[in-house]
């Protein structure tokens, strides 16, 4: 089945909002075995949107649209999609009641234009929105389908995962067996080219298929199989996943879809009853923020410091003045003292330090922009690594945090691998 994505909103064309919905939906559709050949962004204009929809329907079996389902006059997606198929809009009592309840439970006044969101094309399937007011819409005609989803990601994602994905999974595919099953092998600490060079033979497989997806500081390998039933599909996927885990070893941090790198690190800390503290300079607390995003981290996370100035490094972490004078703030010596000083101060089992030059200014020939030193203290042992990252300031900081999570995980694993009687990792 071929799917085409249409993102609606003038703010997307102007660059005011980053189109994260398209990336999310493209990945999810690939995981469902759908082929996506085109993605389009169109502004809030009914004429251009109608033309875009007609073009998409000519070359795709399924068109998924996001955005433009709000209560204002420039929210035209539903009206335009209905018009393309010559369908009238009618008030859906169920959706209207949900919208009224939404406002009433929050003590908010519901204005008249909000009723517009309860208008539904005739013959459409209504998808409840548990996180907002605009319901999703599924329309079908002569083997073609249009799915309309709300634009806010916190509404779109749960709606897709809870309602749309099961709907798509249940659609009959006459050209292939009825079940598609995927498993993702997530790898950290390796670049995409290095990973791909080790799986060229597996990429040639027809069923299951192996497809790499690059992330910041990670590479995900999605293994997808088609079969008559889920049991058979899982049976096809299992040996390939096992082979990938064998090839990449400890670089594989999970095969679970909902486990992020930071969650894997937090789970490792929890499993070994280790506490953690962070001390950051150029990343300004981004490492701590990634860890704190994970529910349950309060069991292990003690303290996070941002020591941007030399004075703060000395006062909080106890970095020696002589170290800063001789080697500078961006040095392996400072990173080591930051990590060890934080361990002494917070009594954490694991501490992690980051110091570097994120740019765009401040670099020299000896210490260029993108030079980062990281220190990781684990139960008395401190490791320091040097990194060189490229890109703008935001990319350098983001890449540094991903590398920090990878290094923290590796240091903890190495610590327990060297112990005769270690805790389970």
Automatic annotation (TrEMBL):
Classify the source by domain of life. Answer: Bacteria
Q: Where is the MoaB/Mog domain positioned along the sequence?
A: 4-171
Q: Name one Pfam family in it.
A: CinA
Looking up InterPro entries in the UniProt record yields: CinA, CinA-like_C, CinA_C, CinA_KH, Competence-induced_CinA, MoaB/Mog-like_dom_sf, MoaB/Mog_dom
User: Family assignment?
Assistant: Belongs to the CinA family.
Q: What is this protein called?
A: Putative competence-damage inducible protein
Q: Which gene encodes it?
A: cinA
